[in-house]
Amino acid sequence: MASKTKGIVLGLAAISIISFSSCGAFGGKGGADTAAIRQELEKALADNTNLITIDSGGYSMNIPKHMVSSTELNNDASLQYENTSKELYVIVIDEAKTTFIKTFSDEDNLDEGDLKYDDNQTPEKNYRLIQMHSLQKNIKVKAEPVVKKAVINGLDAEIVDFTGDVEGVAYPVYYKLAFVEGTKEIYMVMTWTLDSDKNTNMDEMDQMINSFKLKR
Length: 216
What we know:
Elements: H1 31-46, E1 49-54, E2 59-64, E3 68-69, E4 79-83, E5 88-96, H2 97-105, H3 123-135, E6 139-141, E7 146-152, E8 155-166, E9 173-181, E10 185-194, H4 198-210, E11 213-214
Antiparallel strand pairs: 1-2, 2-11, 3-4, 4-5, 5-10, 6-8, 7-8, 8-9, 9-10
């Protein structure tokens, strides 16, 4: 079975075109007030989402009710949702850790320019490095991606965000991704929107990422 990471196709031509903010972002509120504000924000967002369970990938996510299921964003995605009027998109790629490690540890499986699995790093960090290397072959990143360590519902993860240009898309696109290590699988949660809509859609992008949870 080939790794889904190799030859990943984002389907960007189909587009017409962790946690919530840190305490400091809430402007001078104390710790208790900050926690209360965050809880209210999370509750408001949750009230406007549907819980989507993907049995094949062993996970669930909360998706905004205004987004609809798609089949055109990525052929390998186990979850695809979009709202074309808001220019808001999300996919999830999942694959077995053993398949991923085996594929990228064997140089015979790699094409020229592919990254090799680094035994000195965690599977999640290897997945992030290899996926980002692949993505940047198709996306002209405007600045160095920002990488932050996170824990999402008890799972080790890294959050990456960046803005880039995509061939055939007239305007810059903003991406926020989470690379999450499960017990048997490894996941990439990828959200994106037009850079001009980043501030409008950021809370929902964060909410989707932070709602990711294993079902097994």
